[in-house]
Amino acid sequence: MWCFYLLCVFLATVSTGTCQCEIPKHHTEIGCQPVHDDDPECPTRFDCDHLTTRNSSKCHYKGISYDLGEQVYAEDICLDACTCTDYGFDYGVNWHCPSVDCSLGTTIAGYECYKQHSFDRCCGENFCYAPDEELPVVQCEYNNVTYLHGQHIETGVPCVKCICEPEFDGTLDGPGCTTTYDRHSIELHGSTLISAGCAPIYYDISPQCLYTYICPVGGEYVVTPDNSTESDYKCTFGDLTFNVGEKLFTWAISECAECTCSTPTLLTCLWNTECGTL
Ligand SMILES: *[C@@H]1O[C@H](CO)[C@@H](O)[C@H](O)[C@H]1NC(C)=O
Ligand SMILES: *[C@@H]1O[C@H](CO)[C@@H](O)[C@H](O)[C@H]1NC(C)=O
Ligand SMILES: *[C@@H]1O[C@H](CO)[C@@H](O)[C@H](O)[C@H]1NC(C)=O
Question: Which keywords belong to this entry (predicted)?
Answer without folding.
Answer: Signal
